[in-house]
Amino acid sequence: MSQSSMSEITCPACGSKHEFKVWDSINTKQDPELKEAVRTGDAFRYTCPDCGATALLNYNFLYHQMEDKYMVFVSVEGDAWNQMMSILSARQKDLPDYTMRIVRSYNDFREKLMILDAGLDDRVVEIIKSSVWHNVEETYADKGIDEILFAMNDDGEHGFLFRSKDKMIASMEFDMDLYKVVKNAAESRLDFYSRGIFVIDRAWADRVVGEMG
Ligand SMILES: [Zn+2]
Protein backbone atom coordinates (compact mmCIF):
# COMPACT_ATOMS: atom_id res chain seq x y z
CA MET A 1 0.00 0.00 0.00
CA SER A 2 0.96 3.65 -0.25
CA GLN A 3 2.75 5.05 2.75
CA SER A 4 3.23 8.66 3.65
CA SER A 5 4.42 10.71 6.57
CA MET A 6 4.19 14.35 7.54
CA SER A 7 7.36 16.34 7.17
CA GLU A 8 8.11 19.92 8.16
CA ILE A 9 8.83 22.06 5.10
CA THR A 10 10.50 25.46 5.25
CA CYS A 11 9.15 27.71 2.51
CA PRO A 12 12.02 28.73 0.20
CA ALA A 13 10.39 32.12 -0.39
CA CYS A 14 9.19 33.36 3.03
CA GLY A 15 10.81 30.91 5.44
CA SER A 16 7.61 29.88 7.21
CA LYS A 17 7.33 26.25 8.32
CA HIS A 18 4.41 23.93 7.61
CA GLU A 19 3.68 20.24 7.66
CA PHE A 20 3.47 18.56 4.27
CA LYS A 21 2.70 15.00 3.24
CA VAL A 22 5.67 13.18 1.76
CA TRP A 23 5.35 9.76 0.19
CA ASP A 24 7.56 6.87 1.23
CA SER A 25 5.87 4.61 -1.25
CA ILE A 26 3.13 5.03 -3.82
CA ASN A 27 0.93 2.19 -4.99
CA THR A 28 -1.24 3.21 -7.92
CA LYS A 29 -3.55 0.23 -7.58
CA GLN A 30 -4.59 1.32 -4.10
CA ASP A 31 -4.39 5.05 -4.80
CA PRO A 32 -5.22 5.49 -8.50
CA GLU A 33 -5.42 9.29 -8.18
CA LEU A 34 -1.68 9.32 -7.46
CA LYS A 35 -0.94 7.90 -10.88
CA GLU A 36 -1.77 11.22 -12.51
CA ALA A 37 -0.40 13.31 -9.63
CA VAL A 38 3.12 11.88 -9.96
CA ARG A 39 3.06 12.48 -13.73
CA THR A 40 2.09 16.13 -13.38
CA GLY A 41 4.37 16.59 -10.37
CA ASP A 42 1.42 17.64 -8.17
CA ALA A 43 2.18 14.85 -5.69
CA PHE A 44 5.50 16.54 -4.88
CA ARG A 45 4.57 20.20 -5.25
CA TYR A 46 4.45 22.16 -2.04
CA THR A 47 2.38 25.33 -1.96
CA CYS A 48 3.11 27.64 0.94
CA PRO A 49 -0.13 28.51 2.81
CA ASP A 50 1.39 31.86 3.84
CA CYS A 51 2.84 33.34 0.66
CA GLY A 52 1.60 31.00 -2.08
CA ALA A 53 5.07 30.15 -3.37
CA THR A 54 5.42 26.68 -4.83
CA ALA A 55 8.35 24.31 -4.73
CA LEU A 56 8.92 20.85 -6.12
CA LEU A 57 10.21 18.72 -3.27
CA ASN A 58 12.95 16.21 -3.92
CA TYR A 59 12.94 13.09 -1.83
CA ASN A 60 13.28 9.34 -2.15
CA PHE A 61 10.33 7.04 -2.62
CA LEU A 62 9.21 3.78 -4.16
CA TYR A 63 6.72 3.98 -7.02
CA HIS A 64 4.74 0.80 -7.57
CA GLN A 65 2.39 0.51 -10.54
CA MET A 66 1.14 -2.87 -9.44
CA GLU A 67 -1.39 -3.33 -12.26
CA ASP A 68 1.48 -3.21 -14.78
CA LYS A 69 4.04 -5.08 -12.65
CA TYR A 70 6.24 -2.00 -12.63
CA MET A 71 8.33 -0.70 -9.76
CA VAL A 72 10.78 2.18 -9.66
CA PHE A 73 12.85 3.60 -6.83
CA VAL A 74 13.44 7.31 -7.07
CA SER A 75 16.76 8.05 -5.39
CA VAL A 76 17.38 11.77 -5.43
CA GLU A 77 18.87 12.46 -2.02
CA GLY A 78 21.24 10.95 0.50
CA ASP A 79 22.80 7.55 0.32
CA ALA A 80 19.90 5.17 -0.16
CA TRP A 81 21.39 3.52 -3.23
CA ASN A 82 22.73 0.30 -1.72
CA GLN A 83 19.63 -0.13 0.39
CA MET A 84 17.41 0.23 -2.69
CA MET A 85 19.51 -2.25 -4.63
CA SER A 86 19.20 -4.87 -1.93
CA ILE A 87 15.45 -4.31 -1.50
CA LEU A 88 14.87 -4.72 -5.24
CA SER A 89 17.17 -7.74 -5.46
CA ALA A 90 15.18 -9.42 -2.70
CA ARG A 91 11.82 -8.53 -4.25
CA GLN A 92 12.87 -9.72 -7.68
CA LYS A 93 13.05 -13.27 -6.38
CA ASP A 94 9.33 -13.17 -5.51
CA LEU A 95 8.30 -11.06 -8.50
CA PRO A 96 10.37 -12.39 -11.41
CA ASP A 97 8.09 -10.96 -14.12
CA TYR A 98 8.32 -7.42 -12.75
CA THR A 99 10.18 -4.54 -14.34
CA MET A 100 12.24 -2.86 -11.60
CA ARG A 101 14.24 0.31 -11.99
CA ILE A 102 16.21 2.84 -9.98
CA VAL A 103 16.45 6.46 -11.18
CA ARG A 104 18.42 9.40 -9.82
CA SER A 105 16.19 12.35 -10.69
CA TYR A 106 12.56 13.36 -11.14
CA ASN A 107 13.25 13.99 -14.82
CA ASP A 108 14.52 10.44 -15.20
CA PHE A 109 11.50 9.19 -13.24
CA ARG A 110 9.01 11.01 -15.44
CA GLU A 111 10.84 9.82 -18.53
CA LYS A 112 10.52 6.21 -17.37
CA LEU A 113 6.78 6.72 -16.83
CA MET A 114 6.34 8.23 -20.28
CA ILE A 115 8.13 5.30 -21.86
CA LEU A 116 5.94 2.94 -19.85
CA ASP A 117 2.76 4.84 -20.80
CA ALA A 118 3.79 4.71 -24.47
CA GLY A 119 4.05 0.93 -24.22
CA LEU A 120 7.74 0.99 -25.10
CA ASP A 121 10.74 -0.86 -23.69
CA ASP A 122 13.05 1.56 -21.87
CA ARG A 123 16.07 -0.60 -22.71
CA VAL A 124 15.45 -0.12 -26.45
CA VAL A 125 14.80 3.61 -25.97
CA GLU A 126 18.12 3.97 -24.09
CA ILE A 127 19.96 2.12 -26.86
CA ILE A 128 18.49 4.54 -29.43
CA LYS A 129 19.38 7.46 -27.15
CA SER A 130 22.93 6.18 -26.96
CA SER A 131 23.32 6.72 -30.71
CA VAL A 132 21.55 10.09 -30.49
CA TRP A 133 24.07 11.12 -27.81
CA HIS A 134 26.90 9.97 -30.06
CA ASN A 135 25.55 12.14 -32.86
CA VAL A 136 25.07 15.14 -30.56
CA GLU A 137 28.64 14.93 -29.32
CA GLU A 138 30.02 14.65 -32.85
CA THR A 139 27.96 17.39 -34.44
CA TYR A 140 26.54 19.66 -31.72
CA ALA A 141 29.21 19.61 -29.03
CA ASP A 142 29.04 23.42 -28.79
CA LYS A 143 25.37 23.41 -27.73
CA GLY A 144 26.09 22.28 -24.17
CA ILE A 145 23.41 19.58 -24.21
CA ASP A 146 23.51 17.78 -20.87
CA GLU A 147 20.23 15.87 -20.96
CA ILE A 148 18.22 14.01 -23.59
CA LEU A 149 14.79 12.89 -22.45
CA PHE A 150 12.06 10.85 -24.08
CA ALA A 151 8.83 12.82 -23.84
CA MET A 152 5.36 13.32 -25.22
CA ASN A 153 3.96 16.64 -26.43
CA ASP A 154 0.41 17.95 -26.01
CA ASP A 155 -0.65 16.27 -29.25
CA GLY A 156 0.44 12.88 -27.93
CA GLU A 157 3.47 12.67 -30.23
CA HIS A 158 6.67 11.17 -28.84
CA GLY A 159 10.10 12.62 -29.21
CA PHE A 160 13.42 13.37 -27.60
CA LEU A 161 13.96 16.66 -25.83
CA PHE A 162 17.45 18.14 -25.81
CA ARG A 163 18.18 20.10 -22.69
CA SER A 164 20.96 22.32 -21.52
CA LYS A 165 21.15 23.54 -17.92
CA ASP A 166 17.49 22.61 -17.22
CA LYS A 167 16.19 24.34 -20.34
CA MET A 168 14.88 22.69 -23.49
CA ILE A 169 16.83 23.88 -26.53
CA ALA A 170 15.72 21.44 -29.23
CA SER A 171 13.58 18.43 -29.89
CA MET A 172 13.49 15.52 -32.29
CA GLU A 173 10.67 13.28 -33.43
CA PHE A 174 10.72 9.71 -32.13
CA ASP A 175 11.29 7.30 -35.02
CA MET A 176 8.98 4.37 -34.36
CA ASP A 177 10.30 2.42 -37.36
CA LEU A 178 13.81 2.68 -35.97
CA TYR A 179 12.50 1.57 -32.58
CA LYS A 180 11.04 -1.59 -34.15
CA VAL A 181 14.25 -2.36 -36.03
CA VAL A 182 16.41 -1.92 -32.91
CA LYS A 183 13.96 -3.91 -30.81
CA ASN A 184 13.97 -6.82 -33.24
CA ALA A 185 17.76 -6.78 -33.52
CA ALA A 186 18.41 -6.57 -29.78
CA GLU A 187 15.47 -8.50 -28.35
CA SER A 188 17.12 -11.89 -27.94
CA ARG A 189 19.96 -10.43 -25.88
CA LEU A 190 18.23 -7.69 -23.89
CA ASP A 191 17.30 -9.93 -20.99
CA PHE A 192 20.85 -11.21 -20.76
CA TYR A 193 22.25 -7.66 -20.58
CA SER A 194 19.68 -6.39 -18.10
CA ARG A 195 19.30 -9.34 -15.72
CA GLY A 196 19.64 -8.14 -12.14
CA ILE A 197 20.34 -4.59 -13.34
CA PHE A 198 18.02 -1.86 -12.11
CA VAL A 199 19.74 1.19 -13.54
CA ILE A 200 18.89 1.35 -17.24
CA ASP A 201 20.52 4.60 -18.30
CA ARG A 202 23.00 6.00 -20.77
CA ALA A 203 25.98 4.20 -19.22
CA TRP A 204 24.13 0.90 -19.43
CA ALA A 205 23.14 1.51 -23.07
CA ASP A 206 26.68 2.58 -24.07
CA ARG A 207 28.03 -0.64 -22.59
CA VAL A 208 25.44 -2.81 -24.33
CA VAL A 209 25.96 -1.08 -27.68
CA GLY A 210 29.72 -1.56 -27.28
CA GLU A 211 29.36 -5.25 -26.53
CA MET A 212 26.70 -6.02 -29.14
CA GLY A 213 28.58 -4.11 -31.83
ZN1 LIG B 1 6.01 31.02 1.92
Please, could you describe this protein's structure?
By secondary structure, this protein is of the alpha+beta class. It folds into 2 domains: 1-104, no CATH class; 118-213, no CATH class. The protein contains 6 helices and 10 strands, in the order E-E-H-E-E-E-E-H-E-H-H-E-E-E-H-H. It has helices spanning 33-40, 81-94, 106-117, 122-139, 176-194, 202-212; strands at 3-10, 17-27, 45-47, 54-56, 61-65, 70-74, 99-103, 147-152, 158-164, 167-173. The strands form 3 sheets. Strands 1-2-5-6-7 form a 5-stranded mixed β-sheet, sandwiched between helices. It has a 3-stranded antiparallel β-sheet with strand order 8-9-10. Strands 3-4 form a two-stranded antiparallel sheet. The longest helix is centred in the C-terminal third of the chain and has 19 residues, at 176-194. It is globular. The protein starts with a strand and ends with a helix. The site of zinc ion (ZN) has 8 residues, from loops. Residues 11, 13-14, 16, 48, 50-51, 53 line the site of zinc ion.
Topology:
Elements lengths: L2 E8 L6 E11 L5 H8 L4 E3 L6 E3 L4 E5 L4 E5 L6 H14 L4 E5 L2 H12 L4 H18 L7 E6 L5 E7 L2 E7 L2 H19 L7 H11 L1
Parallel strand pairs: 2-5, 6-7
Antiparallel strand pairs: 1-2, 3-4, 5-6, 8-9, 9-10
Helix pairs in contact: 4-5, 4-6
The biggest beta sheet reads: 5 strands, mixed
Molecules bound to protein? zinc ion
Indicate the low-confidence ranges by residue numbers: none
Note the run of SSEs as H and E.
EEHEEEEHEHHEEEHH
Q: State the share of residues found in helices, binned by percent.
A: 25-40%
Domain CpXC: 9-129
Protein name: CpXC domain-containing protein
InterPro entries: CpXC_dom
Organism: Dialister hominis
